[in-house]
């Protein structure tokens, strides 16, 4: 993905009033990012979002994912959103563990719905309720 394409994605997310967070070193080296996007376009689903998080492989297991995700969840809660859904291409034990540690529960596994690097991927869906009512 080009820098221009990524900038466009960030701007579109922020234009919807949703957060896009970036973790970087003091020298500007990018470690990862997390953001939310609308779950569905219909008004009935306006209180639900899909969260995405991406980390450089070298940073996995150092707690950065939890920091980014927790901050994202706090901001989504402050926006009055109700439900966060996370999709995880399988197998991905680290991401599954991250979602579980943050209180998400796995609610679905869709088989062979994605294609990447010449192979079909299953995707697990995780759900977290941000509010009690």
From TrEMBL:
It comes from the Bacteria. Pfam families: Acetyltransf_4 (PF13420). Coiled coil: none annotated. Gene3D superfamilies: 3.40.630.30. Keywords: Acyltransferase, Transferase. The keyword Signal does not apply. Residues 1-131 form the N-acetyltransferase domain. The keyword Zinc does not apply. This is N-acetyltransferase domain-containing protein. It comes from Vogesella alkaliphila.
């Amino acid at each position: 993905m080009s820098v221009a394409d990524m900038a466009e994605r960030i701007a579109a997310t922020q234009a919807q009033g949703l957060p896009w967070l970036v973790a970087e070193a003091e020298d500007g080296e990018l470690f990862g990012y997390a953001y939310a996007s609308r779950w569905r376009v219909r008004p009935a689903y306006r209180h639900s979002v899909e969260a995405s998080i991406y980390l450089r492989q070298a940073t996995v297991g150092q707690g950065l994912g939890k920091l980014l995700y927790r901050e994202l969840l706090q901001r989504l809660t402050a926006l009055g959103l109700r439900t966060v859904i996370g999709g995880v291409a399988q197998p991905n034990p680290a991401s599954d563990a991250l979602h579980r540690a943050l209180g998400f529960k796995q609610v679905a596994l869709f088989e062979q719905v994605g294609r990447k690097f010449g192979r079909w991927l299953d995707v697990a869906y995780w759900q977290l309720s941000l509010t009690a009512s």
